[in-house]
Write a structure and sequence with these properties.
Distance between the termini: 24 Å
Family: Belongs to the MIP/aquaporin (TC 1.A.8) family.
Radius of gyration: 17 Å
Number of helices: 9
CATH superfamily: Glycerol uptake facilitator protein
Helix content: over 70%
Pfam family, one: MIP
Subcellular location: Membrane
CATH class: Mainly Alpha
Organism: Hymenobacter properus
Shape: globular
Low-confidence stretches: none
Order of helices and strands: HHHHHHHHH
GO molecular function: channel activity
Mean pLDDT: 93
């Protein structure tokens, strides 16, 4: 039996909260103790995404990201009436997650905020590219025979971990407006926050366009209907 919208939204709130607790929580732990290192923080993001996909994927699709939800809608694989409720649930979950992280953070912590290492425009380009890569992988491994299964979750989580590993020192490798806005809100660190909304949305929509080009004509026609 299909889940109700309320159940799906609860899964998105819970999943996005857990993503922030363990993802940005790892960044805060490393900030305070220097016990993890950048590679371990990137691994934490990848691991928590894998666990969430495996546990919540059949409940809500486990988007955890307004840009991903928007991308699925643009690809014709998600109902338009659910886009705003999903995004609201993700933002609420992220805020709850950051709130819990703040309880263990030292005063003055940025709570794992995403900040550009160099210029804003360079960071915008990087965030667009990273989200493009993530969304393209998501679209390609959640279609046809690969739609359900551990390998799809592994591919998506590995992409998150890889991009966090490489892009993290440059932009924080957000790829997710909810992931960036909640630490900014609770820490008060709003430096260039807009690029962590514009970049992921642009990257997700670009991935949808490229995915359509890569699809066989019969499948593309089916998705368009």
């Amino acid at each position: 039996m299909p889940l109700t919208l309320r159940q799906c939204l609860l899964a998105e709130v819970l999943g996005t909260a857990i993503l922030l607790i363990f993802g940005t929580g790892a960044a805060v732990v490393d900030e305070q103790t220097h016990a993890l290192g950048h590679s371990a923080v990137a691994a934490a993001f990848g691991l928590v995404v894998f666990l969430l996909i495996q546990s919540l994927g059949e409940s809500s699709g486990c988007h955890l990201n307004p840009a991903v939800t928007l991308g699925f809608w643009a690809a014709g694989r998600f109902e338009g009436r659910r886009v705003l409720p999903y995004a609201a649930a993700q933002l609420l979950g992220a805020a709850l997650g950051s709130g819990l992280v703040k309880l263990v953070a030292t005063p003055g912590s940025n709570l794992g905020a995403t900040l550009p290492a160099h210029g804003a425009m360079q960071a915008l380009g990087i965030e667009t590219f990273l989200t493009f890569g993530l969304m393209l992988v998501i679209l390609r491994v959640t279609a046809g025979s690969k739609e359900v299964g551990m390998l799809a979750g592994l591919a998506i989580s590995a992409t998150v971990g890889l991009e966090a590993l490489v892009g993290g020192p440059l932009t924080g490798a957000s790829m997710n407006p909810a992931r960036s806005l909640s630490p900014a809100l609770l820490s008060g660190v709003w430096t260039d926050w807009w690029l962590y909304v514009v970049g992921p949305v642009a990257g997700a929509l670009l991935a949808v366009a490229v995915d359509r080009v890569l699809q066989p004509k019969a499948l593309a026609a089916t998705n368009a209907t």
